[in-house]
Predict the structure.
Amino acid sequence: MQIIIKHTYRILILLLFLFQLTNFVYSQNSSYFIVNYTEEWTSNNNFRSGVGLLFEKQITNHSGIETGLYRRTYTFDYVSTITTEANNVSNIHVFNTRISQVYLSMPLLYKYYSKIVNIAAGPTFDYFIGWNELSSNTNFKVTSYNLKPKWNYGALVKVSKPVQIMDKLLLEPEIRYNPLFKFPRYYLGMGIAAKYKF
């Protein structure tokens, strides 16, 4: 079964390459530098803001690629239990705080262009770069926090519609969904991209 899936995948890649080759003559060959702001609802029931710097290359009238880096966060409740002992009596203390994990996310997307909407889809790779403590508790402070492994991976699907603002400037609002698989979670929301054509 794995051999069949492997060969099917190779045939699909070859067909995609041939499709791109035959359409290359009709290419608009446009390149864009993009700043993207997102507001996403996470699987932990809160909204998180993100920002990305992207590059987009339209290869044919209907096909292109998009990649770049996003800074995004994921917030959750962190519970710590500490046992102290005084006068041969053990006391258990439970402390609650909120931790915001900070990631760099890199999408590698195939983009399909149409007159109605644009659709982009492909894998994403998130890398843990740091954290912040959001709750202030005078009796408890998190002094270190780490995550292993630091990588997570998923898939991103976006539906967008470009709006011409100036000769070389476009705004492209989008709806996006990004499930992650290694540490199961998702991001669902909207974004707005400012695209400069060069």
